[in-house]
Design brief:
Blueprint (H helix, E strand, L loop, with lengths): L5 E5 L9 H12 L7 E5 L5 H8 L4 E4 L16 H7 L3 E4 L2 H6 L4 H13 L3 E6 L3 H5 L3 H12 L10 E4 L13 H19 L7 E5 L4 H8 L6 E4 L6 H8 L4
Parallel strand pairs: 1-2, 1-8, 2-3, 3-4, 4-5, 5-6, 6-7, 7-8
Helix pairs in contact: 1-2, 1-10, 5-7, 7-8, 9-10
The protein binds glyceraldehyde-3-phosphate.
The site of glyceraldehyde-3-phosphate has 14 residues, from strand 8.
């Protein structure tokens, strides 16, 4: 049986309290069935998580965009998985390419964060994906294989881990891979997950991310082994985000 689809929005470093109105509109849409069979999650900046959890009232899940590997301690500016869970978050994105690039996060660091998420009771959404140069050099599957091997926690199950395949060159650019390319990479990821986690690997949701919009969601999300989307820019506007989620309605 195919895993329950997941449509997750990553607001990145966007959003003030006023934008909780968009979250409210997303929740209203979801409660009226706009996302059909899909689970919907919004990952606002950490500053809004507490209020977002209250506003969402469990209609949609709320997630963080990063967490520290530790639980508490002398780490100025960092936030632990336990702190996010304490606010009512249920997911956390780890290893987004923007963090890998801006903060030099290695796959080893990402794995430690994913383990921390599980320890804190959150479901990590582990991001992987190749750069333009790596794709042009024909190294996409090697990069994906190495990132999976390095970033994934042991003991993952369909219920506690999500993968997001996000080609770096497709993020925020309006460019997307062909459906054939998406199918190839997602099939490869599925194979790697089942090799590592056995039957659970077939249940782990593998999201596609990178310039997903209402106009292309239909074709991208229907590709085999694509179990949903991680949406950046289009998750900031309720009508666009719901326009993507309605693929599952
Ligand atoms: O986490 C989301 C992705 O980076 C995709 O961003 P985008 O939809 O703005 O391309």
């Amino acid at each position: 049986m195919a895993p329950k689809p997941l449509v997750a929005g990553n607001w990145k470093m966007n959003g003030r309290r006023a934008e909780l109105a968009e979250l409210q509109a997303i929740c209203e849409g979801v409660s009226k069935g706009a996302a059909g069979s899909a689970e919907v999650v919004v990952c606002p900046p950490a500053t809004l998580i507490g209020e977002a959890v209250k506003a969402a009232a469990k209609t949609v899940g709320i997630g963080g965009q990063d967490c520290h590997a530790g639980k508490d301690g002398a780490h100025t500016g960092d936030i632990s998985a336990e702190m996010l869970a304490d606010l009512g978050a249920s997911y956390v994105i780890v290893g987004h390419s923007e963090r890998r690039a801006d903060h030099g996060e290695t796959s080893e660091a990402v794995r430690a964060k994913a383990e921390a998420a599980l320890r804190g009771g959150l479901k990590p959404i582990v991001c992987i994906g190749e750069t333009r140069e790596e794709r042009d050099a024909g190294r996409t599957l090697d990069v994906v294989e190495n990132q999976l091997a390095g970033s994934l926690p042991d003991g993952a199950t369909g219920g506690n881990l999500v993968i997001a395949y996000e080609p770096v060159w497709a993020i925020g650019t309006g460019l997307t891979p062909t459906v054939t390319d998406v199918a190839e990479v997602h099939a490869f990821i599925r194979e790697a997950l089942t090799a590592r986690f056995g039957a659970e690997g077939a249940k782990i949701r593998v999201l596609y991310g990178g310039s997903v919009k209402p106009a292309n969601a239909g074709e991208l999300l229907k590709v085999a082994n694509v179990d949903g989307a991680l949406v950046g820019g289009a998750s900031l506007k309720a009508s666009d985000f719901l326009g993507i989620a309605k693929v599952y309605a």
